[in-house]
Amino acid sequence: MLLKVRNLSKSFQNGTKAIEDLSFDIPAGKITTFLGFNGAGKTTSLKIILNLLLPDEGKIYFENKLLKNDFTPLLKQTGVVLESARNMFYALTPMENFIYWGAQRGLNKKVARKNGLELLEKFDLLSKKDTVIFELSRGMQQIITICCALISKPKFLVLDEPTLGLDIEAVETVERILKTLASEGVAILLTTHELAFAQRIADQILLIKKGRLIYSGSKADCLDKFNQEKFITVQFSQALSNNQRAVLESIAKIISINNTTYQLILSNRKNLSHLLKFLTQFKLMDLKTKNKGLNEVVDFYMKGKNEDGSIKSGISA
Ligand SMILES: Nc1ncnc2c1ncn2[C@@H]1O[C@H](COP(=O)(O)OP(=O)(O)OP(=O)(O)O)[C@@H](O)[C@H]1O
C-alpha cells in the first residue's frame, strides 16, 4: 500500500472537530475520490497528509514506513494541485514554470525541461510551451498545473477539486490524463463535488460526513451492493388482469402503476429469470432498468434517503 492513514483526528482552536478517527488506504495505480459536503473535512485531511497541518492524533505510513516528524519521503514523491490559482506563475510560460517548480523539487534545468516537454507532448500541449499562462484557456491552464505537479515524476498525486470551473471538454481531458497516470501506476487522491465526474473516474471512494468516514472501499463494490435491488419499468400494450397482476406481484414489488406502465423493484436477482419468463407472454411497448449512481449513494448516506424517499436499502458503512 502506498499510503496508509490511521485514526486521524483534528480539532481547531475554536472547538471545531474537523475530522475524527479517519482511517483509509491509498493504493498505487488507482484513483481514490474523496466525497463529502462542504465542511466535511476533506481539505483538512489532505492538509494533514501533505504535512501542512498537524493532526491531534493519528498515524500516516508511506510505503509502509511510519512518518513521524519528517514527511520528506512522502513529499518528495508527491505532486499537489490545490484548488486555487497559486499553483503556477501566470506571467511565465509553461516551460518557465516547469523550470521553477522543477528547481523546487531539486531538478536541474535540463531535466525539468526534458520532463516538461514529455508531459506537454503526452497531453497534447507542446505547441503552448512558450505561451504565457495568462493567454491559455482555463482548461489548458489546469493541464499545465497538473504538469507542474508531475514535473519530478511523483508516485502520488493529490488534487483538490481538479475540475472546478472547467467546461465539459476540459473535464474530459483532465479525466483522460488522470486515468492515464493511474494506469502508469501513479496513486491519485482527489476531492470533488461533481458526482458524475467521480462516478466516471473513481476506483475507490472515501465518503466523509461531519469529519467521519462513512464509506471506504471500491466504487464497484459500493455500487454493486447499492444496486442489489433492480428498478425496472415495464410498459405493457394493455392493462394487466387482476390475476396477471397478482403473478407479477409474486415476482417483484410493484411500486407504481400508470395506465399500462408498471414500476417494479426486484429485490432478489434470482427472480430476474422468473420476471423475464412472465414478461414473454405479453406484447411489451417498453422496458427500462435503472442502476443507482454515486449521486443516489451520496444522497442515501448524506441526507439519509434513497430514491423513493425512504430508507430501506443500501449498504452498511
Ligand atoms: N483553520 C481553521 N480554523 C477553524 N476551523 C476550520 C479551519 N479549517 C477548517 N475548519 C473547519 O473544519 C471543518 C472541515 O473543513 P474542511 O475545509 O476540511 O472541509 P471540506 O470537506 O474540505 O469542505 P469543502 O468541500 O467546502 O472544501 C469545517 O467545519 C471548517 O469550518
TrEMBL record:
UniProt keyword Nucleotide-binding present: yes
Residues spanning the membrane: none
UniProt keywords, alphabetically: ATP-binding, Nucleotide-binding, Transport
Pfam families xref list: ABC_tran (PF00005)
PROSITE patterns: ABC_TRANSPORTER_2
Gene Ontology molecular function: ATP binding; ATP hydrolysis activity
Chain ranges of the ABC transporter domain: 3-235
Protein family according to the UniProt entry: Belongs to the ABC transporter superfamily.
Protein name: ABC transporter ATP-binding protein
Organism (species): Lactobacillus gasseri
